[in-house]
Amino acid sequence: MADVDTRREYGGGGGFRQNGGGGRAYGGNKRKRGREDDDVEQGRPDRRPRHSEAPPGTRLRRALLEIGDDPLRLPQEAAQNAAKLATENYEDEYVRDTFCTVALKLAVEQPFKIPMIAGVIQYANADNSEVAKDIISKAASQLQEYLDGGHWRELKLVLRLIACLSPLYEEDGVLPVLDELFNRAVDLQTASQEDAVGLELVKVILLTIPYLLAANGDAALQQAASELLARTDIIASAQNPLEPLVDPYPDANSPDEKPMACASVISLLQRQLQDEESNGWPLKCIPRVYDPSFKQANTNGDAPEETKSDEEAKPTPKHAFPTITVPSTVNPGPKALFPEIYFSLYADQEIESVPPTSSISACLLRDAILDTINILDFNRNATARFLNDIDCYWAPDTFVKRSTAFDKLRDMPSGKSTWKPEDVAIDAIFSQIFQLPTPEHRLVYYHSLITESCKISPGAIAPSLGRAIRFLFRGVDSMDMELAFRFMDWFGHHLSNFEFRWKWAEWYA
Question: Region labeled Disordered — which residues (predicted)?
Fold first, then answer.
């Protein structure tokens, strides 16, 4: 057998072919590196890809979409950064379109973030009034479309955004619009006592007032809101003839025998706002994002230095409120409306794990959560994550720390909130499962939300579900028959996803 030289030649100027097909072409690499060195010496651009910063429009879009999501970041800081990004690049057409489009889309798709988006607009208005002017104009145009089409949820949310911008208006802002909506509600209720569209208009009014006054504490505005509240009492306090049809516990012999107080939502709102009025409109749960005195710390963590321009506060640019025409004939909208009952498994118990029905926070939290659930029905995973993070979107100290054990709520200091974010979210989901005559979406969607919530935070959700199941089981005898079947369907579906684990010994005869 002939000897075979297996040695590889690494030297010389030979390339891959000169190595006999084996090894690495070190000589070729040497020449290649030489060419790269020549490129650098001759001033040729480096051909290697480098990381480049995203354009301003892309960064602005991301900043708006993620605002409020980080619990470790102050909403004022996030709002200021987004506003700065918008004002410094507002000459860019893409930035202008992105800011207006994303801000208005967030208002009707992620209601939790409306006060934060309003804060961004107010910060931007201080540096460039054109930003707020464009947003107000486009928001008014959308509001008119929703009003003409009878899209009451979208109308309510855009009206809320406009109300949160109340300090920017030269005139009375949204109050004349609310007055006109009330006049239409009176006309509808006068024509028919069974009308539900008028109730929906009153509900929109009552849910707008808190955000309006939280954004603007002007005494004249508070007085005007109090006068409007006195007028809505005639409709909100009257029982609608259709309410018994949506009562979840119709078989109870008396209201005291019902497992829960099944009051209508607008009657609760009316009483809650009257209590807030008597206490000076504290509205503690609504976040106040815009703070003209807020200064971000430097990159070193030091407090910002005061400058002469900071000492001389600039006046806030004001804008004319756009014209909104409330049609004389109200479009009832594409969906049938019924009176709404406030269904809660945890409210008004010895230990308050959710806001009591006497607090305006109960209706404000419930309204924002239900809108989020029913708007984002196309993505149950994203919706479940929003519900898991609801404590990020409200004022500090509104909730206790996540996953706080129910037994530890007794030990909370006096004056501290004992509201569990998990209980508030689960309570809202069950209110949709047990809504009469039918919920907005298929029941399996609400089932899946509970399942996904359990997967995201099993240690926090499971105890809340256990208390909810026991509460429902105790009152099943007086429950509406349709709702009893819904309870059985959900319970069976839920257990099938978790290996049918339950403390069955509790229900033995």
Answer: 1-59, 295-326
The answer on pLDDT for 232 being more than 60 is yes
Residue 470 lies in a domain: yes
Q: Cβ–Cβ contacts within 10 Å for residue 190, how many?
A: 10
Domain CATH for 360: 1.25.40.180
CA distance 131 to 121: 7
Q: For residue range 388-423, list pLDDT tens digits in order.
A: 999 999 999 999 999 999 999 999 998 899 999 999
Does residue 498 fall inside a structural domain?
yes
Q: What DSSP element (H or E) covers 56?
A: helix 56-65
Is the residue at 116 inside a domain?
no
Q: Which domain holds residue 436?
A: 349-509
Helix ranges (H only) for 349-420 are 360-375, 380-388
Mean predicted confidence (pLDDT) in 243-266: 85
Number of folded domains that form the chain: 1
Half-sphere exposure of 31 (CA within 13 A, CB side): 9
62 within some domain: no
Which residue blocks in 216-301 are alpha helix, DSSP H?
219-236, 265-278
Q: Which DSSP string corresponds to 313-350?
A: PPPPP-BPPPP----SS----SS-----B---SSTTSS
